[in-house]
């Protein structure tokens, strides 16, 4: 049940996206006023449609590459504005880089002007194709800085650098979350990521596209766990020193994920192998000791529970609809 009193005004850049829309809902449930700022590049109106009925929710269409000015003060800024799916962030790589560099700088400037706390949605992609496993925050990564993923990986790395420059200058209280692969309701059916691709393919009885041998691994975090981790990091009284990994350390091969989807959606879909994309990381798994220790956070939803929930959501015709009672 939503609280009736507003506590803080929170800006969520990228709030109409997959993760951002869940974050906006969770913040509203805590009684905050939420400003969702989004260009709708990869987000969807249906993700936030139900939230628009609430007086504590405001939606602004804006590209963060352009300076961000608001008519009202804000207490918190979450920066989630960036395409996250490889085909989507590679579709206009220059804009992806500018979104992460100029966009982050514009939002940091807004936070500085407001005295607001800032959380940056960074990514496990800053570790590139990692040579250390699992990945701890002090691992400096193995990124191809001229490859087709660089617009995102290097954009996010530059964004982290900007965050800590603003922090060192004393202008903003900054927290950086390195997010690992996340899945759940509100993913776009056609966004090209593995979980949505496999579910949509299986529901249609089509072939399941596995890139490469399927032996590469990922560690999949359910979206409610991620949102809880982001909020815990933002509200931690003591700011963690440096970035914090937020993800689920249970590691699966892509082939294992395809088999799970085949079992959960027995439509006769067979695996079809496709070439591995350039610079596709071979292994990825977060070390989350830091989040456990400093935030008291750990994921609660295993893939065996989150995957059926996600399938159920896609089966309902990808309807959005967070069920909130109007206030
Ligand atoms: P998404 O594509 O669903 O959401 C991103 C949102 O940002 C969209 O609503 C999009 O329209 C908006 N956006 C993009 N460029 C913008 C711009 N220039 N100006 C304003 N809005 C813009 O992606 P997501 O999965 O919800 O990811 C959210 C954030 O988390 C991203 O920053 C992403 O890099 C990070 N992240 C996500 C994952 C994951 O597995 N989902 C993993 C690592 C990091
Ligand atoms: N992948 C796949 N089939 C698909 C989409 C992705 O096999 O239809 C693979 C991809 O090559 C990668 C993994 O699944 O190894 C995760 O891909 P995703 O795009 O979801 O996220 P990434 O971790 O690569 O950013």
TrEMBL record:
According to the lineage, what is the superkingdom?
Bacteria
Asked if the keyword Aminoacyl-tRNA synthetase belongs to this entry, the reply reads no
Query: What is the organism lineage in this UniProt record?
Result: Bacteria, Pseudomonadati, Pseudomonadota, Alphaproteobacteria, Rhodobacterales
**Signal peptide (from-to):** none
Q: Where in the cell is it found?
A: Golgi apparatus membrane; Golgi apparatus, Golgi stack membrane
* Cofactor section: NAD(+)
This protein's name = NAD-dependent dehydratase
Bilayer disposition of the protein: Single-pass type II membrane protein
